[in-house]
Amino acid sequence: MAVTLPRPHRFDVYVAVAGLLGGVVMWALGLYTSGSGVLSSTWGLISLAVMAALELLRRTRPQFALAVGSLALVFDMFTTGNAATILMYTDLAYAAVLYGSPAAARRVPVVTGLASVGVTLGFLIWWRSPQALFVGLGAAVVSFAPAATGALVRNHRDAAEAARLRAEQTALLAELDRTQAVTAERARVARELHDLVANHLSAIAIHSTAALSIDDPATTREALAVIRENSVDGLAEMRRLIGILRDGSGDHEPAAAPTLDRLGALVEAARAGGLDVRLDAGHGPLPAPVGLAAYRIVQESLTNALKHASAGRVTVSLARRDHRLDVTVTSPYDGHSGPRAPGAGAGLVGMRERTSLLGGAFTAGPEGAVWVVHATLPLSEGGPR
Fold it and tell me: Are 200 and 233 in contact (CB under 8 A)?
């Protein structure tokens, strides 16, 4: 089966052609290096042609090119010698380190350095003259110096590539952080919109339905009063949400955020909406995030009871136990009656998210004929979860 060699790089073709033509010109002009002259100068054209052909493999097969090039250089030493052959060999030594495998990049400088030392010692023993040092220096210039240069260039290139990868990773992590921050902020705004608007609009929808369906002036007047109250409260809450969105920091709730001190008014509004609500609140001072979360959970639970609960009593219980606040809301549940107002089903999601942000636990579901919402809110980061 025929072996298909990779196509050489255009620059490598230029180097090969230039080296071959330059070497032929030097041979034609009789410009030789200090070769031994054992063979005639014509034989030097063979090593010149081989070296030029190996230049085509300097990127694709660098280690093979250096090995064969070393043999060609040794052969050239037995002729009158050609400077172009030597220059192309130095390029092969450089390319073997720059484009070779990592192991070759480490090995070639060591091997060429040891070979230069060996040549120097060999000629010192043979000639017994300090002139042998110049031979060793020439060997180092031809082999070790290009390999060492290739190692420096490769290390610089690898360092630049590593820096580029680190920059890309940093940019990717920054983009992920930005995306997570945007997602978290969108979820926060969605919870606020639901808590501030959906609850009031649900009450408005239920009482407007009652006002339209019951032909009783007193009932209509009472329903309109509840509608007006919820409209005013909803507008105030919407203005507060706009203030949150305009706040550049976005890290803290404004001072106007509702607290558990308004829990009694929230229960009275639910009673005005037709719910039979009993409040059992036993708690002391609470951290602001815990108080706000507890208020929103009770608010959403009462809204759901207004939309879904059967006839009967709704119980709201808040109890402080050690390092946590337990919030429990129960309402009658028969599992058959449909909602009295439309909803998107985001209320339970919002309650669960608020509890999770504080590191607490949240459950909601039927227990027999009762729908139970229960949230455990830690009062501190080190409290039980």
Answer: yes
Phi, psi of 32 (to 5 degrees): -120, 160
DSSP annotation string for 277-292: EEEEEE-----HHHHH
Residue 212 falls inside a structural domain = no
Q: State the alpha helices, DSSP H only, in 194-287.
A: 199-213, 217-246, 263-272
Structure tokens at 269: 């509004």
Give the residue from 138, 169, 200 where a domain finishes.
169
Gap between the Cα atoms of 5 and 59, Å rounded: 12
Q: How far apart are CA 94 and CA 116, in angstroms?
A: 16
Last residue of a domain, one of 137, 169, 201: 169
Phi, psi of 284 (to 5 degrees): -100, -155
First-to-last alpha carbon distance for the chain, in angstroms, is 70
> Edge-to-edge, what's the strand order for the sheet holding 276-282?
276-282, 313-321, 324-332, 370-378, 361-367
Q: Number of C-alpha atoms within 13 angstroms, CB side, residue 49?
A: 5
R_g of the chain computed on alpha carbons = 43
Domain that holds residue 144: 10-169
* 248 φ/ψ angles, rounded to the nearest 5 degrees: -65, -35
375 DSSP β-pair partners: 327, 362
Beta strands at 324-332 and 361-367: parallel, antiparallel or unpaired: unpaired
Q: Is there a domain that residue 197 lies in?
A: no
What are the pLDDT tens digits along the chain (385 aa)? Answer: 455 667 888 999 999 999 999 999 999 998 888 766 678 888 989 999 999 999 999 999 999 999 999 999 989 888 888 999 999 999 999 999 999 999 989 999 999 999 889 888 888 888 888 887 888 888 889 999 999 999 999 999 999 999 999 999 988 888 888 888 888 877 777 776 666 666 677 777 776 776 777 777 777 777 777 777 777 777 777 777 677 666 655 444 444 567 788 888 888 878 877 788 999 887 778 888 888 889 889 988 888 888 777 788 899 999 988 888 999 999 988 766 555 445 556 678 888 888 988 899 999 988 888 899 999 999 875 444 4
